[in-house]
Amino acid sequence: MHGHIGGCGQTKGWAFVTETLNRLKAENSNHLLFDNGDFLQGTALCDLMAFGALGPAENHPVIRVMNKMGYDAIGLGNHEFDFGLPFLRDALSGATAPMVCSNLETDQNVWERDLLIKKTLTDSLGQPHKLTIGVFSLIPPQVLDWCRVHLEGRARVFEFQATAVERIASLRSRGADLVFALCHAGDTASKAEAAKNPLATDITSIPGVDLVICGHTHSVSPKPGERKLCVRTPSQSQDSVMPLVLPGDRGKFVGCIDLKLQKSPRGWTWVTAECRNIEVSETANPDVLEIAAPWIARAQTALAAEVGNSEIDIGTFFSAIQCDPATRLAAAAKRMAVAPLLEDLGYTDLPVVTAASPFRAGHDGPECYTAVPAGPVTLREIYDIYPYFNAIDAFKITGAQARDWLEASVSGFFQILPEQPDQPLWNHQFPTYEFDSLLGVSYQIDLSKPALYSPDRRRLSEAACSRICDLSLSGEPLDPHAEMILVTNAYRGGGGGKFPHISSRNRIPLPFRDVRAWMQVIFARGLTENDLPTPSWQFAPMAGTSATFETGSDALRFIPSNLKQRLTDLGETAGGYRKFRLSL
């Protein structure tokens, strides 16, 4: 849910989910309700609560809303740990539903390792039956990397499958008739990705688990409108018929698994299971909105406050064809934040390059773009430019590794054939927020060459077809053996996007710094073009060649002056985007 209470664009939230749940509960009195994590992070309201700007964490509006929902159990996601353990403990202290996390523990857990739920269900003849439902919950072990600044030395994490085997055995031995797994992981991945990230399907073949509820990846499975029917027979393997649902993100869908249960001398089991994702109601529940109304009002007041001024427009509409102001601003804030830290650590002789990407550049629909016009800047607009509460991470790398990082980044572009018109530019299997620019070096991108990396960051070919050319530092060709400092964010540093050459071995330990706080410093001084690092890249010229790309509907207001002669407006698409032709 990522903290969404009301709706905004394609996002729904608990207010809309509640209406759908009320209908489903009315249709069937035998029900259990679970949440699979990432509920305390994802909105400005959640961030402001973490900063203490809207009141004490013990009275968190998200928890109050979840109490209204009547969950049977709630699994923790990795983002619950984004704000540190003291805040998490305070926030969860107000919850009425039990919290579960089976493979991460601290010295002061406020969650259970597993849970037994006593439930009385009514059969088709109206007869009651008492069942005990066992629940366990798994979180990606990479949370120790993603939230390193908060968890290092304070938390221990355990492997997915081993934990599942242990918890299933424990629950069954304590009387569980059925065992449900809340697994904060996706259900599919390439072999390369699966080697680094656990999957929900890793536990479907473990004897004793009856269904799996997935999360984390924001994907939807089964697809909307589809129904997956599982029939349990002795001849089929368990994992081939495992009921499994992955209900997307931010309240767009309610994942539903309908079980038909049967009792035999060996105990209870399901005989059929139908899995589906139900699109949520277009109507918001007023009771839910009323619960959160005081906090929403305070958040809106805080976000409307002016924090500075900008002399330039800041938009991400054209981030696919040049290094946009939002990306350059993020790089400037990171560089400002780490400069004194690196000096204190003795890294004064190494050059610093900063990786940054556009967060809102169309990956979630035609309205998902940053658009901040020149003039007064509010806190809300800073959240628009940089919506995530990301710490800063730094690594020591070589020039060759910097080149490889860039090759991974620019693999999102399709290969463009010379002297051919209107070829698609961007491969949408690559999220735009994984298109990093490196500020501090300069380079060209040769689109006539094939990509070196697949969408899951598998290397496809050797450096002979490198897209990165004329890579230079301070006007000189970049020495592949030269050392430098790469500054990025904790998401990327923890493996987000699976960029190469990141590990604990070359990480430079830094204290927590919030990028948005340093953006506020820049805006408070009055942002000018001179405050931003020089755009680092451009496409290598291709005479007689053009490419097309889609961007947001408001793009016409933000066309960069240096690109006007090379762009042709092709109008709106059926999907609500605006299409342009770029002369290369």
Structure keywords:
single chain; 584 residues; alpha/beta; 6-stranded mixed sheet; 30 strands; globular; hydrolase; metal ion binding; signal
Could you give the topology of this structure?
Layout lengths: L13 H14 L6 E2 L8 H7 L10 H9 L3 E3 L9 H8 L6 E2 L3 E3 L7 E9 L5 E11 L4 H4 L1 H4 L3 E3 L2 H14 L4 E6 L7 H6 L14 E3 L6 E2 L6 E4 L12 E4 L5 E12 L2 E13 L6 H18 L2 E5 L3 E2 L9 H20 L7 E5 L14 E2 L2 E4 H7 L6 E7 H11 L13 E2 L12 E3 L2 E4 L22 E6 L2 E2 L5 E7 H4 L21 H11 L11 E3 L6 E6 L15 E6 L5 E6 L1
Parallel strand pairs: 1-2, 2-3, 6-8, 8-9, 9-12, 17-26, 21-28, 23-27
Antiparallel strand pairs: 4-7, 5-6, 10-12, 11-14, 13-14, 15-19, 16-18, 17-22, 20-26, 23-24, 24-25, 28-30, 29-30
Structure overview:
- The longest helix has 20 residues, at 325-344.
- The chain has a 6-stranded mixed beta sheet, covered by helices on one side.
- The protein is of the alpha/beta class.
- It has 14 helices and 30 strands.
What would you call the structural class? alpha/beta
Total of helices: 14
Number of strands: 30
Q: Strand arrangement, largest sheet?
A: 5-6-8-9-12-10
Q: Whole-number average pLDDT?
A: 91
Give the overall shape.
globular
Separation, N- and C-terminal Cα atoms? 41 Å
Helix content: 10-25%
Radius of gyration: 25 Å
Residues in β-strands, percent? 25-35%
Query: For the report, how would you describe the main beta sheet?
Result: 6 strands, mixed
Low-confidence stretches: 189-195
Organism: Cognatishimia activa
Domain 5'-Nucleotidase C-terminal: 371-502
GO molecular function: hydrolase activity, acting on ester bonds; metal ion binding; nucleotide binding
Pfam families: 5_nucleotid_C (PF02872), Metallophos (PF00149)
